[in-house]
Automatic annotation (TrEMBL):
This is Pentacotripeptide-repeat region of PRORP domain-containing protein. It comes from Malus domestica (Apple). The keyword Signal does not apply. PANTHER family: MITOCHONDRIAL GROUP I INTRON SPLICING FACTOR CCM1 (PTHR46128), PENTACOTRIPEPTIDE-REPEAT REGION OF PRORP DOMAIN-CONTAINING PROTEIN (PTHR46128:SF307). PPR repeats lie at residues 13-47. InterPro entries: PPR_P_subfamily (IPR050872), PPR_rpt (IPR002885), TPR-like_helical_dom_sf (IPR011990). Pfam families: PPR_2 (PF13041).
Amino acid sequence: MLKELGESGYEPNAITYTTVMKCCFKFKQYDEGLEIMSEMKSKGSAFDSFACGTDVAALVKTGRIEEANACMEQTTRNGVGTRFIVL
C-alpha cells in the first residue's frame, strides 16, 4: 500500500505510516509492521507518541522488551513525550 502511494506521487506522513503499522499488527504481521516503522524513521517522518505507542505495543507482544524500552528511550531523547502511550 505504501509503495502504491509513493508511485502515485503521495508521500506518506506519520499518520499514514502509523495507520498501516496498526493494520499489520492487528493481523499479527509484526515483522512487516516493524519494517514500516523502520522505513518511517529512515525517511525522517515525525515519530510521535502515537507511532511510538504502536511500535512499543508490537514489540512487547512479540517479547522484544529491550527493543521496546530502547524505542521509548530514543523517543524521549528526541523530545517526544511517551506518557500518553497506551499498551
